[in-house]
Amino acid sequence: MLFIADVVGTPGRKALEERLASLRDELKVDFCVANGENLADGVGITPKLAEKVLAAGADVITLGNHVWRRSEIVPYLNGAERVIRPANLTKAAPGKGIVVTNGRNETRVAVINVLGSLFLHPPVSMWELIDELVTEAQRQTKVILVDVHAEATSEKVALARWLDGRVTAVIGTHTHIQTNDARVLPGGTAALSDAGMTGPHDSVIGVQAELAIKRMRTGLPVRFETAAGDVRIEGALVDCDANGRATACETVRVRV
Ligand SMILES: [Fe+2]
Q1: pLDDT for 104-114, tens place per residue?
Q2: 37 C-alpha vs ligand 1 centroid, how far in Å?
Q3: Dist. CA 183 → ligand 1 center (Å)
């Protein structure tokens, strides 16, 4: 069983530290991916926070459009084995966009991280390199998970359709609102447009609501602070067979 969650701020990290180990047992999770681009005060990630989330039970951390918001992560990504960043960045970017590593049951799992185009404007379109990445993953394992960090459901649905039958799952992150479209496509690829948010839900996608509303209403600069209330672990749960074909895909929502 594969589990992927998009984790926001200190509340999200603490929820994993408190609950991920027992949740992995309850849900029989062999492999856990945490998108961690919003771990540092709601935006960016530091090496220390990455290590904490790995220690809490994530097997791999993926990132997104806020990858470079904290400069400490730049040198760390060069040596990080289980922390990857979107593959479709510039050639100068440290780190990598794919990793293959062992899950709890010793199954090899490949994780690929790409950025969608709408509003995020990656230097390279994910469509330019996704086939190459999938081929690279297929050389090493049949269990392949794609974290498509994107704004538009259309891009996420299109990518899942394009990869149907070639990867185990295409799971969306970034929008922090869990979508109601968990499914297994005809070719055997699990898909969900957004895994939701592991973090504070009494908020505007993780930010204290009054601050987000003030910025939107006034157009003035407002420093965002991560909210604290109604913390939940949300994510996608995917089951697959030995050939990496998905057999089930569902959403998870647990109050912490
Ligand atoms: Fe994002």
Answers
A1: 888 999 999 99
A2: 7
A3: 23
